[in-house]
Amino acid sequence: MTEGERATGGPHPDPLPQERGTHPALPDTFLILDPDEHTLDRSRCVVLPVPYEETTSYRKGTRRGPEAIIRASAEMEDYDVELGCEPCSVGIHTAPTLEAPLAPEPNGGPEAMAGRVREAVASYAAQGKLVGMLGGEHSITSGAVAAHAERHPGLSVLFFDAQADLRDDYQGWSHSHACAARRTLDHASSLTLVGVRSMTGEEAAFAQERGVALFPRGAEPIADVDAIVDTLGEEVYVSFDLDAFDPSFMSAVGTPEPGGMGWWEALRILRAVGERRRIVGFDVVELAPDEGPEACAYTAAKLVYKLFGYATAYAVAEVEGHDA
Ligand SMILES: [Mn+2]
User: Fold this and answer.
1) Within a domain: residue 262?
2) Domain range spanning residue 86?
3) If you measure from the C-alpha of residue 179 to the centroid of ligand 1, how many angstroms do you get, rounded to a whole number?
4) Ligand 1 centre from 242 Cα, in Å?
5) pLDDT tens figures, 193-225
6) Per the domain annotation, does 219 fall within a domain?
7) pTM for the whole thing?
8) Of 7, 80, 263, 289, which cross-links 68 as Cys (Cβ 3.0–4.6 Å)?
9) Residue 44, in any domain of the structure
10) Distance 178 CA to ligand 1 centre (A)
11) How many A from CA of 3 to the centre of ligand 1?
12) Ligand 1 mean position to 286 CA, how many Å?
């Protein structure tokens, strides 16, 4: 479907040339899906933009991540070549942006923000929606994990991240972006970290002590997909910090780290999780669009769409109950 068809409901006779990234006349929705068709009621999936940034420690700008992802998503095709379907056919509703109360005071910091995220995600999940959250800094993840853990007591969390994010606090914040993985352990049953190539000795010791499954990225791609899936329970929340990718094609992140994962390296894992487990929710966080080329926002948008696809394309297996 072309942009003209989506926006008007029929083929556009003579589409006007659009300046890249502006699209003033098009709806501000993921994939520029028609909001009248993709109402909350009629959609299986919800895009939740959370442009929160307060505890970032290196390069700034992830506050502008969600808007950049939604804007770039206008350039994507509905059809997924790998899955052989249009994942958006189940409906993708773009929810109103979840904003932090105006800074500086009193917004309550990242802990209060996680509480707001928890409330919003819980409300969508209670309506049977699959929420894909767009960050924003990584500290928002724990709120979504809390909401899902309440519904699924055995919840597993699967993190993609260059850093282990296992600190108990950082620069005075117990809910800092650098503590994102640690805070999910307040709620989740298990935690699996993939793509890590930067951590402290303390974090390494903690991971071992707490049984955190660690799949670091060294010189070779992470190829043992089965080993990763085996660490996961039936219900899985996926949190994807874009710095898990290699900065050669994903430079627009707050904390770039060399030697990262490739696109298909990550997607092979995510696809296997979608096939063999149930992805109950996910986030894609830490895009700092001003730090890199527009291709990064497009890549992030595509990752979001792939995740919706992997989470919904195998829904038959879900209904019939598949063996773990
Ligand atoms: Mn992170």
Assistant:
1) yes
2) 26-98+109-317
3) 8
4) 8
5) 999 999 999 999 999 999 999 999 999 999 999
6) yes
7) 0.89
8) 289
9) yes
10) 6
11) 34
12) 7
